[in-house]
Amino acid sequence: MKVLLLKDPKEDDRGQDPYIRELGLYGLEATLIPVLSFEFLSLPSFLEKLSQPDSYGGLIFTSPRAVEAVELCLEKDNKAEVWKKSLKEKWNAKSVYVVGNATASLVNKMGLHTEGENCGNAEKLAEYICSSPEPSSWCSLLCKHEAKSIRCLP
After folding, report:
1. Among 8-12, 51-55, 70-74, 111-115, where is mean pLDDT lowest?
2. How far apart are CA 154 and CA 152, in angstroms?
3. Which of 3, 19, 46, 94 has its CA 20 to 30 Å from the CA of residue 110?
4. DSSP 148
5. By mean pLDDT, which of 18-22, 67-71, 135-139 is the weakest?
6. Nearest to residue 94, comparing CAs of 33, 131, 124, 138?
7. Is the per-residue pLDDT at 144 higher than 70?
8. How many CA atoms lie less than 13 Å away from 117 in the CB half-sphere?
9. How much of the chain is in helix, strand and coil states, percent to nearest 5?
10. How confident is the model at residue 139 (pLDDT cuts 50, 70, 90)?
11. What are phi and psi of 85, to 5 degrees?
12. Of 96, 118, 94, residue with least CA distance to 108
């Protein structure tokens, strides 16, 4: 039987999309059709901010796309060298939070130490950040923009 698989292609350690491989094990012939496209709109502005870690309390990566944005910024104007020499160390001195293990793995490959990967979703990560020993600046930002009620104690 043939199956249309509507998703972004991904490769596992064997160089094959895990869905195609798994469906094939059950005798299904999967055809992968990417249905979404994505475009980063603010890379120059993001690069400027990424280059000024002293102006920020830390980083929150909510998806692998966020990591991709950092990587694209670092590819421009030899920023990768600046990242290795100083920026990475400055960001590592701050909190770097992530949603999920896949995002954590990508952030770790960039040389950053992460927290919160086991939270699993943004709401639980916000609760985790708010319960940290020094949540004040993070907490006020998260609570200000959080649609659901998260209790943050001062």
Report:
1. 8-12
2. 6
3. 19
4. S
5. 135-139
6. 138
7. no
8. 14
9. 50, 10, 35
10. very low
11. -80, -35
12. 96
Question: Could you tell me which residues are beta bridge partners of residue 58?
Answer: 95
3-state secondary structure of 140: helix
> Per residue in 38-63, pLDDT tens?
888 888 988 998 999 988 888 999 88
* Helix intervals (H) in 26-135: 43-50, 64-75, 79-82, 88-92, 101-109, 122-130
- Residue found by looking up tokens 């939270």 in the block: 119
3-state secondary structure of 32: strand
Structure tokens at 41: 């709109």
Task: Report CA-CA distances (Å) from 154 to 13, 27, 28, 66, 122.
Answer: 45, 57, 55, 29, 20
pLDDT digits (tens, 9 = 90+) for 12-26: 777 788 888 899 999
DSSP reduced 3-state for 113: coil
Separation of alpha carbons 59 and 111, rounded Å: 13
Residue with tokens 């895990």: 18
Structural element, H or E, at residue 18? helix 18-25
